Amino acid sequence: MLLEDIANTDQRPKFDDYDQHFFVVLKMLSLNERQDVLVEQVSLVLGRNFVLSFQENGTDVFHSVRERLRAGKGRLRQAGADYLLYALIDAIVDQYFAVLEAVGEKIESLQHIVVTDPTPETLREIHALKRQLLFLRRAVWPLRDVMNNLSRSECPFLEQGTKVFIRDVYDHVVQIIDTIETLREMVSASLDIYLSSVSYRLNAVMRVLTVITTIFMPLSFIASIYGMNFEHMPELKSEWGYPAVLAVMAVVGVGMLVAFRRKRWI
Question: Could you give the 3-state DSSP secondary structure of residue 66?
Fold first, then answer.
């Protein structure tokens, strides 16, 4: 059962308490060169005097733990395997903050674009961030219960002093979940702003076109009357008829434009 759980890399974070060991599954987050979030499963097995770690792809976030072990200073060398388990989990959780900070910067940059110059590509980026945050929420949310169960475990080789540190990790996980929810709200707000910006630009274009159409309606009416070419129509044989009609049309157009401006329609 344990080997099957380790080999299955599609599991949600969980904690299993066996008779002779603990089994913890959690997700490790990292960023690639394009600042996209990568998710990797990490399985940890804690026994009385050992800790086994299994990584899906070998992404390295345990550099600080190894450096502390090589230095031989601090509590990590003197404490037992349970404290090493805490150190590994804490390194993974600390990486969450760095990843969420990068995601937050992308969202802030996207919000600026949404306000200034939204494009269809902006909409695709918003939906990509929404999917990414939903995936992060699914990867992190169950970890809260894992840390809570681990801190309350009655296993004899998990010391009470280590449980205090595990509860501190639990607090960090709760803070991370709150951050994810905040970022999701920011992305949703960005989507609303995008839709409002597009709607405002469309309304502005429609308003200009409506004003132009309204101005040309009486001009078209005048032109259509004098385009009928009946034999006994007035002004047809007048020397000043053509410029007079043009002048009337100009006065009507300018007058309507001035009236629209006074009413602040344009």
Answer: helix
Percent of the chain's residues with pLDDT above 90: 4
- The CA-atom distances, in angstroms, between 108 and each of 40, 96, 126, 186 are 26, 18, 11, 9
Statement: residue 187 has pLDDT above 80: yes
> Collapsing DSSP states into helix, strand and coil, what is residue 40?
strand
Please state, in angstroms and rounded to a whole number, the distance separating the CA atoms of residues 156 and 170.
21
The pLDDT confidence band at residue 65, using thresholds 50, 70 and 90, is confident
Find tokens 């009337």 and name the residue: 248
**Quick check: 97 pLDDT over 80?**
yes
Amino acid identity of 264? Answer: R
CB 256 within 8 A of CB 216: no
Distance of alpha carbon 141 from alpha carbon 102, whole angstroms: 19
- Does the structure show a pLDDT above 70 at 144? yes
Distance from C-alpha of 136 to C-alpha of 47, rounded to nearest angstrom = 29
> In this structure, is the dihedral angle defined by the CA atoms of residues 135, 136, 140 and 141, taken in order, positive or negative?
negative
Angle between helices 241-262 and 160-225 (to 10 degrees): 150
Domain extents in the chain:
2-201, 226-262
Query: 176: which 2 tokens?
Result: 């991370």
User: Is the pLDDT confidence value at 78 over 80?
Assistant: no
- Provide the CATH topology of domain 2-201: Methane Monooxygenase Hydroxylase; Chain G, domain 1 (1.20.58)
Q: Does residue 143 surpass a pLDDT of 70?
A: yes
- Mean pLDDT of the 103-112 span: 86
**Sign of the Cα pseudo-torsion (85, 89, 92, 94, in order):** negative
